[in-house]
Amino acid sequence: MRREAAPTPDGFAPSPDVDKAILAEQLRVLYVEGQRLILTGVAAALILVWVLWDHVPHAVLLGWLAAFGLYSLARAAMARAWRRRAATDTDQRVWLRRVQWALLVGGTMWAAACFLFYVPDRIEYQLFLVTMLLGAVVSGLVTLAVYLPAYLAFVTPFVAATAIRYGQGGDPLHWGIALAAVVTFLLFINFARYIQNSFVEQLRLRMALAERNREVERANLAKSRFLAAASHDLRQPLHALNLFAAELRDQSDPAERTRLIARIDAAIASMNELFGALLDMSKLDAGVLAPDVAEFPISHLLDRIETTFAAAAREKDLSLRVMPSRAWVRSDAILLERILLNLVSNAIRYTAKGGVIVGCRRRGDSVRIEVWDSGIGVAEDQRRSIFDEFYQAGPPPGDPAAGQRAGLGLGLSIVDGLCRLLGHPIDLASRPGKGSGFAVSVPRATARQRPAEPAATLEAIANPARDKLIVVIDDDALVLDGMRGLLQGWGCRVVTADSSDAALAGLSAHQGQPSLVISDYFLANGTTGIDAIERLRAAFAEPIPAFLVSGDTTSERMLEADASSLPLLHKPVNPMALRSMVNRLLR
After folding, report:
1. Cβ neighbours of residue 400 under 8 Å, at least 6 residues apart?
2. DSSP letters of 33-82?
3. Which residue in 378, 388, 358, 373 sits closest to 430, CA to CA?
4. 298-349 pLDDT, tens per residue?
């Protein structure tokens, strides 16, 4: 299965299903509402026969009336058959042809009346006949114009008959009547076309609105499922943390304390994974992710994938093989890495035995980055659904992977969103019970040699934060204490403060310009981290590198940070993510 990454345009786009639904509604009007035309026609036929009883042979009148009655009964039977048709009878074109032929027969019968009921030398009865035929044109417009070919099938025969019959009159009055019939016919065709277009457009708008309502309902249901799942998944590691912390407090055995610390780290990692997935979805929904496309060797990402998941694969006794590649690609390195992290994480999560292989293939102007596993696979009917938010493809009954924590089902939805954002098509090949393979196609770049780095700069490249002066602004004392200890552990000099004024006062003792500013988004007295950063930049008259940290994950905060060109990390911040941001800005 191939899932294209091209963005879907906003608005309601026509589709075969929509056209089919519109045709079904047009058929409903022709068959059900068209019964009124049958009743109107029967009434008009009776009136016509009654008025002309003394001027047209009775056999002609009764014969035509009997034929019209049989035709009307046949139309009523067709309408009844259409209403009682089986639910599986969806061949709408057949029913459309039937009603068009029936309308053509009805129009032909009125055309015959134009010749049969013409009273020579009695202009008043001739005008009465024209009036009745014009009434048929108008009544047909009300119910048949929703489908223009049906309306034309009904009115064309007797309008043509009227023009021919009265055109034979040989005097200006009859020629005028014939010409008026033709002009009226053309005008009513335009009216009918307008009615049909309006009818179809209203149907499209109504269906678009109905689809939007269904989307809102689905979003509300998804939100409810999300809240339930997020509540459960957050409570689990929090509950475990409480138990481990209580046990650690009273534990004196060093080995047991080491084990408990490892379990606490695992619970924190679980929470970070959950928050990371939620933040990725929030950023995609808010539309604040702007790809920073560059050319780079894919080997850098492959090395990080191997380093990140080697331990997780060993814990499950799986083999993880990352095939080396010298290819260069053109993409956003950070977002592409996020795609691969989700794919490999999913592969390991849903694989109970065997292993995972990550490698690259060159295909024309693209590089296919492939992730193969020997896991549970994806059933044919799930291949579209697995890319939806909150969808979890659980293992089949009896599978060894059953019972494992599956998360919120956001991983592949994030992959799909990022692939669409970057324009990277993603392919899926899978056999249930045998495994799956995901492949992301990335534009290939020309490989080139990087210049050798001077030996003197190797340490600065490996640890750009060492000896740098970093300002941390937050109105929470515990956060400041934690950030100070973490940054000092990385070799940084640190100034912590709860406001920009306090930060400037603290910097005066160092007599130097800070290399980086890290600020919480919301500070005391209604100020923001954006204000604090601007204050420090103005004080030193330099565009000091800076980024924001916030626990507010709403799209408004993301958009505000994006507008200020400041990176934004969301609490709780993974120390590795924090160090990555610090190194990136200082490098």
Report:
1. 352, 353
2. IHHHHHHHHHHHHHHHHHHTTTTS-HHHHHHHHHHHHHHHHHHHHHHHHH
3. 378
4. 988 888 888 778 878 888 889 999 999 988 999 888 788 888 888 888 888 8
Interatomic CA distance for residues 83 and 31, integer angstroms: 8
Q: DSSP letter for 30, please.
A: I
Half-sphere exposure of 30 (CA within 13 A, CB side): 29
| C-alpha span between 64 and 77 (Å, rounded) | 20
Give the closest residue to 582 by CA, choosing from 471, 451, 497: 471
Q: Which of 341, 241, 272 is nearest to 576 (CA)?
A: 272
Rounded distance between C-alpha atoms, residue 196 and residue 205, angstroms: 14
- Report the b/e string of 496-513 with b at 16+ CB within 10 A: bbbbbeebbeebeeeeee
- Residue 429 makes CB contacts below 8 A (sequence gap 6+) with 1, 436, 437, 439
Burial code (b: 16+ CB inside 10 Å, e: under 16) for 11-22 equals: eeeeeeebeeeb
Span 554-573, pLDDT tens digits: 777 778 888 888 888 887 77
Helix (H) or strand (E) holding 321: strand 319-322
> With the C-alpha atoms ordered 302, 304, 308, 310, is the resulting torsion angle positive or negative?
positive
DSSP H helical segments within 145-253, as ranges?
148-167, 172-249
Number of neighbours of residue 93 by Cβ within 10 angstroms: 9
Residue type, 27: L
Element (DSSP H or E) covering residue 367: strand 366-373
DSSP assigned state of 449? P
Q: Which helix (H) or strand (E) holds 392?
A: none
Query: How many whole angstroms separate alpha carbon 43 and alpha carbon 297?
Result: 83
Enter the tokens of residue 57.
């042979």
In Å, how far are 149, 187, 203 from 100, measured between CA atoms?
Answer: 8, 21, 22
Query: Distance between CA atoms of 404 and 398, rounded to whole angstroms?
Result: 12
Q: What is the DSSP letter of 525?
A: G
Closest Cα partner for 518 from 569, 465, 482?
569
What's the token pair of residue 445? 């770049």
Report d(CA 353, CA 137) in Å as an integer.
75
